[in-house]
Amino acid sequence: MPRHETDYDVVIAGGGAGGIGAALGAAKSGARVALVEKYGFLGGAATNAQVLAYCGFFHQGNDPLRAVAGAGEQVLEEMRAMGVACDPYRSPTTNNWIVLLDPERLKVALDRVLAAHGVDVFLHSRVAAASRTARALESVTVAGMDGRFRLIAESFVDASGDANLALVAGVPMRTGDSRGRIQAYTMPIRIGGLAPDTKIDRALMQAAIAEFNEGSPHKIHRTDAGIFTRVPGTTDFWWLVVDRDMPDLSSGSFTRAEQTGREMSLGLVDILRARVPGFENAWLAQTGPQIGVRETRHPAARYDITHDDVLQGRLREDGIARGAWPIELHSEAGKPIYEHVGGEGYFHVPYDAIHARDLDNLWYAGRVIGADDYAYGSIRVMGTAFATGEAAGVAAALNAKGANAVTPETVREELRHLGALI
Questions:
Q1: What is the CATH number of the domain that holds 363?
Q2: In whole angstroms, what is the distance from residue 56 CA to residue 278 CA?
Q3: Where among 238, 266, 287 does a domain terminate?
Q4: pTM of the model
């Protein structure tokens, strides 16, 4: 039987890092929470695009200084209980501190941690419509496997990454950066069948890319051989090297990016098998499930974090989360640009950056929070998404108790109570 309508305190669109943070923040603040996710699993890019690392949990520098705790740390603790080390790992390519992941264990860890806090999860479902009166959302219509049903709530969080909830709610937004450009998308590759003692020679990988580019109409722009690592606990090899420019957000452009990304990945592995020692018996174990999406829509917030906020490491009395990942822009495929965070190595995400401009009971989490073109290159990563999500969930829960309960100060106080770093 199709569901009809159900009342919640907080409804969250999206089950990536931002949505998980929001669900935990809201539930631990006493709210009854529903989370709607379009895939059959949670995790966002870590599980739907094979991004096998959490970025943004630590500052840059010689030592891994923590920037994110709270809900994000709770997820890491659940994974540690399942045998995933989750230790800080310094990328030999970028020198950034990351946390390496096991995506299948992560899926189960997220199921468990939300179930432990009583969050109602609706998988294979997406927000299809929203009803509003003046400056407030009243409900969302969800399209699921059993038809359409309505979720009524006091508060809402858009953690969809693509601003799907804000879009159907009629919030003004821009696509891409201020000039309409969309950051390049990347097809991560997982390769199996390597000889156990294979040493990855970057020069040989570069030569394989050069050979690929000579024979393919679709070029690999990361001629430095990109970013790669061995997958912990396996003999597999993970490679971030195939980028696709996105001219727009049309279904046609997404289709072409997905199809050419798969073709390129398969062709590249064939060359590795023929040319690179240790890869003779290798195979393309996985692409996707989808291409890695860095940027789509930006809904209007009450404040946009600025380039200068990041470069100065600006700290604020209304800060509700830390951002510590360097600005990382992919405006041109295969040519990332980096800028370091200034000050003490982190900047504050202010409360108004997670609050919708035109709706009083809608908050943002993850990569849909307010940020200018440059600051966006820092805030979009998953560690920071946990932190902004937890803050959004807390604000939404406080709002459900009474609109007068929500101020930057009350959100900060509750976040500290939950163990978040501010």
A1: 3.50.50.60
A2: 33
A3: 287
A4: 0.96
- Which of 21, 35, 235 has its CA nearest to residue 151? 35
Which residues in 210-231 are b (16+ Cβ under 10 Å) and which e? Answer: eebeeeeeeebbbeebbbbbeb
Do the domain assignments include residue 132? yes
Kindly state whether residues 301 and 280 are assigned to the same domain: no
**Does residue 264 lie within any of the structural domains?**
yes
The two structure tokens encoding residue 370: 């307010």
How far apart are the C-alpha atoms of 393 and 31, rounded to whole Å?
A: 9
Same domain? 153 vs 17: yes
How far apart CA 203 and CA 66 sit, in angstroms, is: 34
* 297-299 and 227-230 strand pairing: unpaired
Residues 322 and 223 in one domain: no
- How many whole angstroms separate alpha carbon 88 and alpha carbon 86? 7
Residue 356 lies in domain: 5-177+295-417
Whether 127 is in a domain gets the answer yes
Cis check for the bond before 289: say yes or no (omega within 30 of 0). yes
Q: What secondary structure does DSSP assign to 282-309, as a single string?
A: -EEEEE-SSPBP---EEE-BS--B-HHH
Residues constituting the chain: 422
Do 64 and 91 touch, CB atoms closer than 8 A? Answer: no
CA distance 146 to 165: 20
142 and 17 in a common domain: yes
Residue 218, token pair as written in the block: 């679709």
**From first to last of its 422 residues, what are the pLDDT tens digits of the chain?**
345 567 999 999 999 999 999 999 999 999 999 999 999 999 999 999 999 999 999 999 999 999 999 999 999 999 999 999 999 999 887 889 999 999 999 999 999 999 999 999 999 999 999 999 999 999 999 999 999 999 999 999 999 999 999 999 999 999 999 999 999 999 999 999 999 889 999 999 999 999 999 999 999 999 999 999 888 778 899 999 999 999 999 999 999 999 999 999 999 999 999 999 999 999 999 998 999 999 999 999 999 999 999 999 999 999 999 999 999 988 777 778 889 999 999 999 999 999 999 999 999 999 999 999 999 999 999 999 999 999 999 999 999 998 677 999 999 999 999 999 99
Same domain, 400 and 277: no
Both ends of the chain: CA-CA distance in Å? 45
Three-state DSSP state, 203 = helix
Tell whether 422 is covered by a domain. Answer: no
